[in-house]
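*** Residues and shapes ***
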Amino acid sequence: MPRSSYGACVPTVSTLYYIHYDRDESIPVDEIIGALDDLVKAGKVRAIAASNINPERLSEFLAFSDREGLARFVALQPQYNLVSRDTYEGARREVVQREGLACVPYFALAAGFLTGKYRPGKRVDNVRNLPGLAGGYVDTERGVQVLDALQQVATAQGVEMATVALAWLAQQPTVTAPIASARTVEQLPALFAMQDLHLSDDELQTLTAASS
């Protein structure tokens, strides 16, 4: 698999190509956008997107693309879920909304925490080895409040907690679609059910208040 000048693997053909980290902000945006634009023009990539980029730098990328008429980010992939809201809400979301980008959040279920399998005093073997991400919320007051609210809404709707967590995310401003992964086939129905679940204003407020 060939590599671009800034070290990312470039597939033979990609519909949407992300740059996931902007680790060295001393690299000028024109160098990065120039390389990405070359990929688009060569037909290797149809569109470009970004992830884990601070809002100021994201704005700089977009402004340069517009000014020079080069390939422009069409989406942002931030970490965003009911227990990780400050990773997106605020300046990042303002840029996305202002610039007309799609938001495609990852860790939509907080590495499994929002499925309800992590509870205080309950031991769970984390096969993904992400205890700091999922288990880290278990003993926090906010984490417990979110799980209680998810359980309340899930019971009323007759669905899984994961379905509710994804539905809340999907109904947030600027969010196009959340990203959630499954380890087993049995976990898939709860994820797919999100598309058929529309939360009421009261249910959204219950979840939002619990996660504040």
Summary: The two ends are 44 Å apart (CA to CA). Residues 75 and 103 are 6 Å apart (CA to CA).
